[in-house]
Amino acid sequence: MRGRFKDQGQQAAAKRVQFASPFLPYLFLAPQLAIIFVFFYWPSVQAIQSSFYLEDPFGFGSTFVGLTNYADVLKSTEYFGIARFTAIFTALVTFFALAIGLLLAVKADGVIRGNAAYKTLLIWVYAIAPPVAGLIGMMFFNQHIGPLVEFARWFGWDIKVGLDYFDTAFAMIVVAVWKQIPYNFIFFLSGLQGIPVSVREAAAIDCRSELRRFWTVILPLLAPTAFFLLIINVTYALFDTFGIIDVMVKDKAANNPITLVYKVYMDGFRGSDLGGSSAQSVILMVIVLVLTIFQFRFIERRVHYN
Amino acid sequence: MHRTRFFDHVILLIGVFIMVAPVVVAFMTSTHEAADIHRNGLSLTWGGHFAETYETVLTREGGFTGKVTGFNMMLNSMILGLGFAVGKIVLSMLAAYAIVYFRFPLASFFFWVIFTTLLLPLEVRILPSYEVMNALKLTNTYTGLIVPLLASATGTFYFRQFFKSVPDELLEAARIDGAGPFKFFIDVLVPLSRTMMAAIFIIMFVYGWNQYLWPTLMTTDEGFFTLVRGIKQILLVWVGSNIPDYNEAFALAILAMLPPVMIVVIFQRWFIKGLTESDK
C-alpha cells in the first residue's frame, strides 16, 4: 500500500495523501484540456499571429506586415476617441455601481425587520441578461413612450437616445449601473456580515458617530471585498456590457458611443478588417493581463496580512 | 436611533423601487395592446391582454425566415443553459479531482495550463474563435454554441478550492476500506459536493442562459436562436413597424428573464453561497 500512497507533508497546498496512478489523472484531465486547447489556446495564438498579417480583401492569402496593424490602430483618432469613451464609461459605471451597492448593503445590514425581503428584491436583477436589460432601458428611454424621457423634459432636457452622443452614453451608463448593483450588493453584504460582532461593539463604544465609525472601522475592513469588486466591475464594464451596447446602438454605431470590445467586433465582423481587429484584440488582452496580475498580486498580499 | 432606522428603510425602499419598478412596468405593459401603449406610454396597471400576447409571442412563427417561434427560442435557451451548466460541472469536477487528489509529474504544468484561461475572457478573442469554429464546421450547431463556452477554468477553480477543504481523513479512511480512485470519487466526493454542485449549477445555468455575444456569432440560422440572442432582432424587426409591437417586445423580454430570475430567487441561499464563497 505504501507504494501508491505518498506522503506530501512538505507541500501545504496539496493533500497529505494522494492517489498515484500512471494514467488516471490524465484521463480525468483530458476532456477539460482538449476543450481548452481547441477553444482557448488555438484562437489566442491565432489572434496574436493574425495581428501581424494583412488579410487580402478577396481572400487570397495574407502578407506579413509586422507591427503595421498596431501602428494603424494606435495612430487612429477614432480608436483614441473610443478608448477615451471606454475609460470614462468604465470609471463611471464602476464608481456608481460600487457606491450604490455599498450604500444599500450597509443599510440592509443595519435593519432587522424586512431584511430577507430587501435582500431578495435587491439581488434578483442579477439574473437578467445584459441585452434584456438594454431592451428594457431602450423602452424607458424611448422617444414616444419612455417615462424617463418625459421626466427629463420637466427639467428641459430632451433625451434622444440613439441620435445624440451624450444622451446615448447617459442611457448606457444608467442601464449598465442598474444591472451591476445586485452583484456588488451581494458581495458587500456578505463582507459586512463577516465582520465579527465583537469588532462592531468595540467600535461602537469607542466612537459614537455612526458615519465616522463607518469610515474608520467598517470601510477598512471591507477593503479586500471592495478591491476584488473593483476589478470585477472594471472587467464587467469593459466586456460584459457588450449586450447592452449592442442593443442600444442598434447597428448604428456611427455617431454613437461604443467601447473597445464593440469596436473589435465591428471591425472583425462588419468591416472584415481581420488584422486590425486582431491587433485590437491583442491590445485588449494586454489590458486584461495587467488587470489580472494586479489582482493576483493584491490577493497574495491580502493572504499575507491575514 | 429610531430616526436613523427610519431613513435606512427609506433608502432601501428607494433602492428596491429602482431595481424592481422597471421590470414590473415591463410586465404590466406587456399585457396591454400595442396601440394602447403607443397612445398612453408605459403602464403600471394590468392591461388584460396577457394570454393573447404571450400566446402570440410563444407560438407565432416570426423572424426574418418566418419560421422561428418564441417557444423554439426558449427551448434553445434551455438547451444552452442546461448543457453549459452540466458540461461545466462534469468537466471541472473531473479536472479538479485529478489536480487535487493525484500525484503526477505534470500536475503543476497542467494546473497553469488550465488556470491561464482565467486571464483572458472570450470577448478578447472572438474573431479567431469564430474562425476556428468555421474551420471545424461547428457554426449553427448546439456543440458550437455550448462547448467553446466551457473553455474556461472558473468551475475547475471552485471545485479545486472545495476539494482542498475536504478533510484528508476521509481519503485515508476510504483507502483503509479498500476504495480505489473511482469508488472514492463516486461514493465519497460526489455526495459531499452536492451543495457545491447545486450552487455552481445555478450560477452556470444563469450564465449560460444569459449568453449573448457568443450565440450572436455562432448562430445565423434562426432555428438556433436563443431568447437572449433574439432580443436585438425583436427590437429591429418587431418594433420596426408603424405601430411598434411594444407589448410583444416586452413579453419576450419577460420570458427571457423568467427562468434565470426564478432560479436565483428560489435557490437564493445556495446561489449567494456559491457566488461569494467560490469567487474569492
Polypeptide structure, described:
- The complex is a heterodimer of chains A (306) and B (280).
- Chain A has helices at residues 24-50, 68-75, 77-110, 115-123, 130-140, 147-154, 165-193, 197-206, 210-240, 242-249, 260-270, 274-305; strands at 6-7, 17-18, 53-55, 62-64.
- Chain A is mostly helical and 306 residues long.
- Chain A has one domain (70-302): MetI-like fold, CATH 1.10.3720.
- In chain A, the strands form 2 sheets. Chain A has a two-stranded antiparallel ribbon with strand order 1-2. A two-stranded antiparallel ribbon of chain A has the order 3-4.
- The longest helix of chain A is centred in the N-terminal third of the chain and has 34 residues, at 77-110.
- The two termini of chain A are 39 Å apart.
- Chain B has 280 residues and is mainly α.
- Helix content of chain B is 72%, strand content 0%.
- Chain B has helices at 2-30, 34-40, 50-59, 70-101, 107-115, 126-135, 142-146, 154-165, 168-176, 181-192, 194-209, 213-218, 227-238, 246-266, 268-278.
- The radius of gyration of chain B is 23 Å and the shape is globular.
- The relative contact order of chain B is 0.15.
- The model of chain B has no long low-confidence stretch (mean pLDDT 85).
Could you name the ranges of chain A where pLDDT drops below 50 across 5 or more consecutive residues? 1-12
- Radius of gyration of chain B equals 23 Å
Largest interface: A-B, 99 and 97 residues
**Biggest β-sheet description of chain A:** 2 strands, antiparallel
Spatial strand order of the main sheet of chain A: 1-2
The helix content of chain A, as a percent range, equals over 70%
Provide the gyration radius of chain A in Å: 25 Å
Structural class determined from secondary elements of chain A: mainly alpha
Mean pLDDT of chain A: 83
- Label the CATH architecture of chain A: Orthogonal Bundle
Mean pLDDT across all residues of chain B, rounded? 85
Name the beta content range of chain A.
under 5%
Distance between the termini of chain A: 39 Å
- Uncertain regions spanning at least 5 consecutive residues of chain B: none
Overall spatial form of chain A: globular
Please give the alpha-carbon distance between the first and last residues of chain B: 35 Å
CATH homologous superfamily title of chain A: MetI-like
SSE order of chain B, one letter for each helix or strand = HHHHHHHHHHHHHHH
Order of helices and strands of chain A: EEHEEHHHHHHHHHHH
CATH T-level fold name of chain A: MetI-like fold
- Tell me about the largest β-sheet of chain B: none
